Amino acid sequence: MGTAADRNRSSMQKLKELIIYISGKFESEPAAGDTKLNKILFFSDYVAFGKFGETITGENYTKQEFGPVCQRLLIARKEMIPKDVVVIRRPTIDGLQTRTIPKREANLTIFDGEQIAIVDEICELFRRDDAKTISEFSHKFQGWRKTRTGDVIPMETFFLPAEQRSEVSDHELAVLKELEKTYGRHPASGEAS
Hints:
alpha+beta; globular; 46% helix; 12% strand; disordered C terminus; 193 residues; two-stranded antiparallel ribbon
């Protein structure tokens, strides 16, 4: 099992490799900044927790205004500059966008195939969504709704009973149905299929 320090290093390494992997998948898409990266990391870990009882990265996510945020994303990325990634900040209509551009391929040997399959599926489910859309969607998840701003979102909220879905748009409902088809429950509602 290893020491806490070993688990912390492993978690950070997995986070770094997923930052590279996800950023590489969205490198040519202009809407893929930090907001989208954070949400894809969160959704991947949240779904993995629901399926396996543990997250892929071992990281914590806090509730922030624009949705779940990986606590150590900025630390990980800072450690990766300039060898592994380049960070670009550019103005957009909505403000300043920060993007991570990988300088190498991700080392996927530290993950199992099921973990990467979840990440790939989450990337595809949200490929067409911009930062605002994916951020608003993340607010539908029980973990985000039931946590105070600044606090860590407990992954166990995946298993909470269903609540009203009146806030969910048709597109969001389609994404939830796709997740349910694959994983057997709606992560936003906690409802088993």
